[in-house]
Design goal:
By secondary structure, this protein is an all-alpha fold. Helix content is 93%, strand content 0%. The protein is elongated, with a radius of gyration of 45 Å.
């Protein structure tokens, strides 16, 4: 702002007001320029961060898919192995029953009696509580 205008009593007030308004307008334009520049830099930084994040997210997604695929394959293999073992155990049991029917019936009766005794103990302990 021009101080000679303020100190000069012959300068009309409107000139002083015009100069003050011009000075304020200049300050506003300068502030807008600085703000726009700051927003542009911030936008550039956000774009840079996004450009870096996209490949990282893609790589992590790909790795997660790979882990999931390997897990499914491992579960499928384990399930197949368990099915094979159960089949072999069933065939072995049938073979034992055919070869030793009396022993098989005695073993079944003993296991049944033990289970009934266990059920009896559990039911008595619950009724006592």
């Amino acid at each position: 702002m021009n101080t000679s205008v303020i100190n000069n009593p012959t300068t009309p007030a409107s000139t002083f007001v015009d100069q003050a308004a011009d000075s304020a307008s200049g300050a506003i334009r300068s502030t807008q320029t600085v703000a726009n520049s700051a927003f542009d830099r911030l936008n550039d930084q956000v774009e840079t961060a996004r450009d870096r994040a996209v490949p990282l997210v893609d790589r992590l997604t790909s790795q997660a898919e790979g882990v999931a695929r390997r897990s499914v394959e491992a579960m499928r293999d384990t399930s197949g192995q368990l099915r094979d073992r159960a089949t072999r155990a069933s065939e072995s049991t049938v073979g034992y029953i055919k070869g030793e029917p009396v022993k098989a019936m005695l073993i079944a009766a003993a296991v049944g009696a033990a289970l009934m005794a266990l059920v009896g103990l559990v039911s008595r302990s619950r009724s006592v509580d």
